[in-house]
Amino acid sequence: MSNDTDDTASEDASVLVVGGGPAGLSAALFAAKNGLETTVFDGDDTWMHKAHLFNYLGIGSVGGSEFMATARQQVDDFGADRRQGEEVTSVRETADGFAVETDEGEHEYEGDYLVLATGANRDLAEELGCAFTDEEVVDVGVDMETTVEDAYATGAMVRPEEWQAAIAVGDGAAAALNILSKEQGEHYHDFDVPADAERLFGEELAE
Ligand SMILES: Cc1cc2nc3c(=O)[nH]c(=O)nc-3n(C[C@H](O)[C@H](O)[C@H](O)COP(=O)(O)OP(=O)(O)OC[C@H]3O[C@@H](n4cnc5c(N)ncnc54)[C@H](O)[C@@H]3O)c2cc1C
């Protein structure tokens, strides 16, 4: 898989992800898997705890909390620092990136990139100075970057309605791939092939 090979985007760049619902964990998964130092802060108020998914392509039926447990394990396995239960209380730009403070209050965390994934709560994006649309959601393009360079917004916070887990996961992936492309200096693909699965799991389990 990509994070085990020499084609990782950068060992040095770091990403702060605020919010550990489907959008934030997807961003964290792609970032950590591909070699970026990744920290995720999450208050565990995700709507997924109220959901049961029958509409997530490729998954027949799964409880929302069960989906989250698998997603968290996946992100942990790829080496992200998931700070469950730690709420971000403020965000700001620094000379070379971003800094966040949390309710644990001991120190600031700094990162080169910031991914906001705070669900329908858009307060941190407002605090950072991100532009909003006429529909009062955070203004982003298809790569999920906000009007603040290197700051991304993903998931429910960028949509007035039409909220779905699959869309949030796609938003998070788009943000992380854009960060990886910036780091690599060319379009980045996180493509694995059957040989990668064979190498990791052996021929019997690769399917
Ligand atoms: C009753 C119900 C049923 C649903 N059923 C389905 C369904 O069947 N299929 C489907 O596809 N979708 C369903 N959804 C929608 C789906 O749950 C959302 O689209 C999805 O959860 C949005 O993901 P998100 O990551 O954008 O936000 P969320 O899942 O809301 O996650 C945001 C996370 O950010 C954290 N957070 C916020 N602010 C901070 C902060 N300052 N610091 C740290 N953490 C913070 C929160 O604690 C939360 O964990 C349902 C929603 C509801 C309410």
UniProtKB/TrEMBL annotation:
Alphabetical list of Pfam families matching this protein: Pyr_redox_2
InterPro entries with a match to the protein in the record: FAD/NAD-bd_sf, FAD/NAD-binding_dom, Ferredoxin-NADP_redctase_2
Assigned keywords, A-Z: Flavoprotein, Oxidoreductase
Domain FAD/NAD(P)-binding: 14-121
GO molecular function annotations of the record: oxidoreductase activity
SUPFAM superfamilies: FAD/NAD(P)-binding domain
Keyword Nuclease found: no
PANTHER family documented for this protein: THIOREDOXIN REDUCTASE 1-RELATED-RELATED (PTHR48105)
Name used for this protein in its record: FAD-dependent pyridine nucleotide-disulfide oxidoreductase
UniProt organism field: Natronobacterium lacisalsi AJ5
Source organism phylogeny: Archaea, Methanobacteriati, Methanobacteriota, Stenosarchaea group, Halobacteria
